[in-house]
Specification:
elongated, 2 strands, mainly alpha
C-alpha cells in the first residue's frame, strides 16, 4: 500500500510539473501576442526549454521565434522612418537572428497526430512563410551586427542567408534564389567577420567557400593566404598561392614566393629553381623575382651567387626595400670579411681599412639607408647599419641610428 501511495505521489508531482510548464508556455504566448519584446518573451519561456515535459514541444521555440520576428518588424518600421539609433538597430538585429534560430528549432518539432494516426503540422506553414518572407532582411541585418562590432552575430545571420537557398523546405517561400555571385559576396563578408573574431579556421573556410562560389578577386587570395598562414595551414597557403599566381602573378610576385617556400620545405629545390626561372623568363622586368632567386641561392642546398640577383632587382626597381637590404648585406658581409682578415699592424691595417674595407662598407651603408627610408620597420637593416657606423667610427650617425632603434 505504501509503495502504491508513493507511486501515486510521483505521478501527481510529474503532472504538476507538466501543468506548471504548460502555464509557462501560455504566459509566454500571451506576452508574444500582446507584442512584448523578444527578450521579455524569451525570459518567460526559457524554463520550458530545459524541462523534459516541454523541451521538445514546438511551442517552446515557436513562441520566442515569432516574438523575435514581431519585434523586428516593429523596429524595422521605425528604422525606415529614421527613428532608430545604433543601439536600436542592434536590438532589431538580435531580434531577427533570435527569431530565426528559434523558428528553425521549432520546425522539426511541429508534428500533430490526428485520431486516425496521420501526422500533420500546425505551425510549419507559418514558420516557413515567416522565415522566407524575411529572407532579404538577413543580409542587411548582418550589416547592423557588423557596425555594432558584433562579428559573431554578423557571421551567424549571414550563414542563415547563404544556407537557406540550399534548404528544399524554403525553396518556394524564398521566391528568388540569389545568384552564386551574391552568395559569394556574403561568404566573403562572413570570412572577414570570422577574421575579426580571430577564428582563423572559420575565416579560412569562409574565404574558400566564397572562392568556390566564384569570388576570385585579388583581395580574397591575399586575405585568405594571411589567414591560412596565421592558422599554420601551409597546404592551404600553397593551394591559394598557386591559384592566385595563375590569376594575378604578373602584378604580384609574392605568390610565387609562397609556392617556392613550399618547394623548399618539401626539399624540392630543383622545382623551386625551375619555377623562378620560368617566372623570370615570362616577366624579366619583375624585380621581386630576382629577389626571390637571390634568397633561393642563399640556401645551402642551391648553388648560385645571390649578389647579381639582388643587384639586378635594384637595377629594375630602386625602391624595392627588400632588394636594397639584401644587396646591402652582400657588401656588408664582404666588408666584414676584409676587416676580420686585415693585418694587425697599424699601418697595414689602416691601409686595408681605408682602401678596401671602407669603400665596401659605405656601399652597404648607402643601401641600408635607402632600404630603411622606404621601410622604417626594417630593424634588421637598422641593426646592421648600427654595426657599420660603429666599425666606421662614425659616432654621429651611430647615435642617430641607435636612437631610431630605441637604444
Amino acid at each position: 500500500m505504501k509503495k502504491a501511495i508513493f507511486l501515486g505521489a510521483c505521478l501527481l508531482l510529474g503532472a504538476g510539473a507538466m501543468i506548471a510548464q504548460e502555464a509557462v508556455l501560455k504566459e509566454a504566448e500571451r506576452a508574444m501576442k500582446k507584442g512584448e519584446d523578444y527578450s521579455a518573451v524569451l525570459q518567460i519561456v526559457t524554463p520550458a526549454m530545459s524541462d523534459p515535459n516541454t523541451a521538445n514541444d514546438v511551442l517552446t521555440y515557436y513562441i520566442p521565434g515569432k516574438a523575435g520576428y514581431n519585434q523586428f518588424d516593429k523596429l524595422y518600421a521605425k528604422d525606415q522612418l529614421g527613428q532608430l539609433d545604433d543601439a536600436g538597430r542592434l536590438t532589431k538585429a538580435q531580434a531577427l537572428l533570435g527569431g530565426y534560430n528559434y523558428l528553425m528549432k521549432a520546425l522539426p518539432l511541429d508534428t500533430v497526430v490526428d485520431a486516425k494516426g496521420k501526422v500533420k503540422t500546425k505551425y510549419s506553414k507559418d514558420i516557413v512563410n515567416t522565415i522566407g518572407g524575411h529572407y532579404n532582411d538577413l543580409y542587411a541585418t548582418g550589416i547592423d551586427f557588423w557596425n555594432a562590432k558584433d562579428y559573431q552575430g554578423a557571421y551567424d545571420i549571414w550563414q542563415a542567408y547563404v544556407s537557406l537557398p540550399n534548404n528544399p523546405t524554403f525553396v518556394k517561400a524564398l521566391n528568388v534564389t540569389p545568384p552564386d555571385s551574391t552568395l559569394a559576396e556574403i561568404m566573403y563578408n562572413q570570412a572577414l567577420a570570422a577574421w575579426q573574431m580571430d577564428n582563423m579556421p572559420l575565416a579560412l573556410d569562409a574565404f574558400i567557400n566564397a572562392k568556390n562560389h566564384g569570388y576570385q578577386k585579388k583581395n580574397l587570395y591575399d586575405y585568405a593566404i594571411a589567414v591560412a598562414s596565421s592558422a599554420g595551414n601551409t597546404d592551404a597557403v600553397t593551394m591559394l598561392a598557386k591559384e592566385a599566381q595563375q590569376l594575378y602573378g604578373d602584378e604580384d610576385p609574392n605568390y610565387i614566393g609562397y609556392i617556392i617556400n613550399n618547394c623548399i620545405s618539401e626539399k624540392r629545390y630543383k622545382d623551386a629553381v625551375d619555377m623562378i626561372d620560368t617566372a623570370i623568363a615570362a616577366n624579366p622586368d619583375n624585380a621581386q623575382y630576382y629577389v626571390i632567386k637571390g634568397i633561393l641561392f642563399e640556401t645551402d642546398e642551391v648553388d648560385g651567387d645571390p649578389e647579381p640577383q639582388y643587384a639586378k632587382a635594384v637595377e629594375l626597381d630602386s625602391h624595392n626595400a627588400q632588394a636594397l637590404y639584401n644587396l646591402g648585406r652582400m657588401y656588408y658581409n664582404r666588408a666584414l670579411t676584409i676587416y676580420n682578415d686585415a693585418p694587425a699592424e697599424n699601418e697595414a691595417f689602416n691601409k686595408v681599412f681605408n682602401e678596401e674595407f671602407k669603400p665596401e662598407m659605405l656601399k652597404a651603408v648607402d643601401l641600408f639607408g635607402r632600404a630603411t627610408a622606404i621601410d622604417e620597420n626594417n630593424t634588421d637593416a637598422l641593426k646592421l647599419l648600427e654595426q657599420a657606423y660603429y666599425m666606421l667610427n662614425d659616432d654621429a650617425n651611430l647615435k642617430a641610428t641607435q636612437a631610431r632603434l630605441g637604444n
